[in-house]
Design goal:
Length: 136
């Protein structure tokens, strides 16, 4: 009878311990599921950020390529102008034909001023100012 009683108590303790352990595992499982959901959302957000960063990198690369092309064109124009000026003997022309040289310098200066006014016009991108300018 004592043995039966001891075995019954051990059985009850085992069942209670198993039940408590199962409840503990269920609570841990709930925490793990919540963490997994958070992890999946974080991964999805990071994937979106990576996609946006790649798109921005492509745009930046295109802008760099455009700027490189513009730089090459500018360098070609500078080289052309240097070669053009290398062909002139300005000192000799200033001594022999000062009036002709003065006229050339005045016309070139006027063109430079006109170009500077065009490219530094603060209203060049203002549609309303451009509309008023073209209608006047």
């Amino acid at each position: 009878m004592k043995l039966t009683f001891i075995l019954a108590v051990l059985l009850i303790l085992t069942v209670l311990g198993s039940t408590m352990y199962i409840k503990y595992l269920n609570s841990e499982l709930t925490v793990v599921r919540a963490n997994q959901a958070i992890l999946e959302r974080t991964i999805q957000d990071q994937n979106e950020q990576i996609k946006q960063a790649l798109e921005q990198a492509k745009k930046t690369a295109q802008q760099i390529q455009t700027l490189n092309n513009q730089y090459s064109a500018s360098q070609a124009q500078v080289t052309k102008l240097r070669n053009k000026f290398a062909n002139f003997n300005l000192e000799g022309m200033a001594m022999t034909e000062p009036a002709v040289l003065q006229g050339k310098v005045n016309r070139a200066t006027a063109r430079v001023i006109e170009n500077l006014n065009t490219i530094t016009n603060p209203d060049q991108f203002d549609e309303e100012a451009n509309t008023n300018t073209t209608t006047n």
